[in-house]
């Protein structure tokens, strides 16, 4: 770390742009990219004294201005519930708000959390004020999707000064798209993790599923698979933490399968860590994901991960014959993995310890934060 950072001098203000954003004090659920941005802003502001302002859309039950600490302030602009009009409102009123804040703080760096309207706003600001952009990309679908909106957004990605690649796949596709290697920075998502954790030698018999209840999460597939598990181990319980448009339909599936005593819906919760600590296994069947926070968080707590085969899970876990990865072709696959885990508990404990060590070695938040700080300092030095 540079002497300037150590002494707390010459720390230039940063403006974070996020279409959706909340804090730990609010109860509005947001995605992993927003969670990571919040944690980073909190670390930079409290530990290093960096002045950070976030410009985001006002969501339900969130104040217009929220002061997290003297150096970290969330500023919200009023929008509407209609997506396209909301994006237009965010672009116009977000720009007006930026001008007001810029007059006072003279931001030197812009950072976006996703490729969307916030990146368009960042590019407009860069065009006028010449402020460099760090564009965080959370999923390779930004480059591979056939959706028209991504095709329109690629030029804005290329206009960014730095691409924060959260996985090797994003790095690969960014380079393939024509972005120079020198502008692609590998900064993964991070998670708080303790060096030592105690894993009970006796299973809790609790299986966990965390995430929004929407089609791409395939929670219905997991519930149907759990039916086979309960037939052999009736004492096992599945906790589903999260909410979404499919909740009613999923509750109906639980009733049809007569799993009311083995499956509980807890809705959106702020105390997810308690569920991690009291569970043995995390089930994950999400597709079209970047680097899901839920996988990192559960690994940090030493859970066994039984997950669908995707490029990201194959990267995190070795896809071998004995791995805990499954396909979505047959509900028997995840149920077989769950049964195997409980029938071979000593091996399962070893796998859980291995997951925890992987987080310490690569995804510990302090290491990830230092990578961003290095980029921050490089930008400061370059623009002196």
Task: Describe what you observe in this structure.
There is one protein chain. The chain is an alpha/beta fold and 384 residues long. It folds into 2 domains: 3-190 and 364-382, Glycogen Phosphorylase B (Rossmann fold), CATH 3.40.50; 206-362, Rossmann fold, CATH 3.40.50.2000. The protein has helices spanning 3-7, 32-47, 83-105, 117-129, 141-144, 148-159, 168-176, 219-232, 247-256, 272-277, 293-300, 311-316, 332-343, 345-363, 365-382, and strands at 14-17, 52-57, 65-69, 72-77, 109-112, 133-137, 162-165, 184-186, 206-210, 237-241, 263-267, 281-284, 304-308, 325-326. An 8-stranded mixed sheet has the order 3-4-2-1-5-6-7-8, with helices on both faces.
How is the biggest beta sheet arranged? 8 strands, mixed
Give the percentage of residues in beta strands.
15-25%
Helix-strand string: HEHEEEHEHEHHEHEEHEHEHEHEHEHHH
Work out the helicity level. Answer: 40-55%
| Biggest sheet strand line-up | 3-4-2-1-5-6-7-8
CATH class wording of the largest domain: Alpha Beta
């Amino acid at each position: 770390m540079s002497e300037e950072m150590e002494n707390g001098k010459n720390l230039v203000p940063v403006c974070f742009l996020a279409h959706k954003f909340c804090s730990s004090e609010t109860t509005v659920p947001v995605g992993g990219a927003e969670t990571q941005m919040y944690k980073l802003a909190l670390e930079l502001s409290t530990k290093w004294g960096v002045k950070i302002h976030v410009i985001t859309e006002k969501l339900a039950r969130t104040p217009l201005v929220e002061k997290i600490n003297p150096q970290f302030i969330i500023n919200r602009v009023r929008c509407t519930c209609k997506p396209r009009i909301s994006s237009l409102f965010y672009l116009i009123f977000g720009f007006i708000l930026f001008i007001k804040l810029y007059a006072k703080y003279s931001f030197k760096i812009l950072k976006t959390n996703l490729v969307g309207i916030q990146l368009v706003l960042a590019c407009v600001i860069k065009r006028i004020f010449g402020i460099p952009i760090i564009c965080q990309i959370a999923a390779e679908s930004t480059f591979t999707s056939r959706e028209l909106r991504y095709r329109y957004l690629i030029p804005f990605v290329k206009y960014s000064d730095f691409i924060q690649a959260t996985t090797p796949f994003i790095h690969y596709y960014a380079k393939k798209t024509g972005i120079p290697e020198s502008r692609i920075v590998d900064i993964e998502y991070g998670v708080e993790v303790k060096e030592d954790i105690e894993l009970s030698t006796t299973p809790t018999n609790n299986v966990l599923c965390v995430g929004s209840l929407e089609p791409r999460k395939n929670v219905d597939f997991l519930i149907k698979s759990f039916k086979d598990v309960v037939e052999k181990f009736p004492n096992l319980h599945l906790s589903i933490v999260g909410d979404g448009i499919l909740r009613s339909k999923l509750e109906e599936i639980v009733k049809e399968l007569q799993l009311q005593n083995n499956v509980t819906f807890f809705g959106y919760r702020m105390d997810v860590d308690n569920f991690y600590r009291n569970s043995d296994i995390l089930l994950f069947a999400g597709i079209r994901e970047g680097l899901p926070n839920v996988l990192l968080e559960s690994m940090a707590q030493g859970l066994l991960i039984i997950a669908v085969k995707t490029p990201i899970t194959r990267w995190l876990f070795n896809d071998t014959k004995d791995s805990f990865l499954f396909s979505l072709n047959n509900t028997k696959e995840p149920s077989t993995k769950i049964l195997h885990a409980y029938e071979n508990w000593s091996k399962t404990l070893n796998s859980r310890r291995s997951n925890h060590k992987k987080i310490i070695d690569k995804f510990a938040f302090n290491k990830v934060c230092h990578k961003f700080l290095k980029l921050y300092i490089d930008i400061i030095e370059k623009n002196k």
